[in-house]
Amino acid sequence: MNLNTKVTIPDTLFSQEVDDETIVLDTNTQEYFNFSSLGKVIWDMLLEENTLQEIFDELNEFMEVEKKQLENDILDFVKSLNERNLIKTSD
C-alpha cells in the first residue's frame, strides 16, 4: 500500500459526525467504529473521494510533522480501515 493506492468506501457504511468524532456503522455486520483527530480528518477526505496523495498534500500544508511521518500515519490508518473491511483498495 502506498499513496497511489485507490480507495473506495462501500455503500454499506453509514457515517455521522458527532461532536469531535465520526461514528461509522457497517450495516452488514452492525459494528460501530469511531474516529477522532487525524483519523476523522482522513475519513472525511476519503468521503469526498480524495486520493491518498491528495490527502497527504493537503494535510502536509498545515500539519507540522515530517513528511515521512505523515505518510506513515495516513497509510497506517488506511491499512486499519482495510483490515476492518471499511474500505476497498486497489493499486
General description of the model:
By secondary structure, the protein is of the alpha+beta class. The protein has one domain: Outer Surface Protein A, domain 3. Helices cover 43% and strands 26% of the residues. The protein contains 3 helices and 5 strands; from the N terminus they run ββββαααβ. The strands form 2 sheets. A 3-stranded antiparallel beta sheet has the order 2-3-4, covered by helices on one side. A two-stranded antiparallel ribbon has the order 1-5. This is PqqD family protein. InterPro entries: PQQD (IPR008792), PqqD_sf (IPR041881).
What's the layout of helices and strands?
Blueprint (H helix, E strand, L loop, with lengths): L5 E3 L4 E6 L2 E6 L4 E6 H11 L4 H11 L4 H17 L4 E3 L1
Antiparallel strand pairs: 1-5, 2-3, 3-4
Helix pairs in contact: 2-3
InterPro entries: PQQD, PqqD_sf
Protein name: PqqD family protein
Pfam family, one: PqqD
Record keyword descriptors for this entry.
91 residues, alpha+beta, Outer Surface Protein A, domain 3, three-stranded antiparallel sheet, 3 helices, globular, PQQD, PqqD family protein
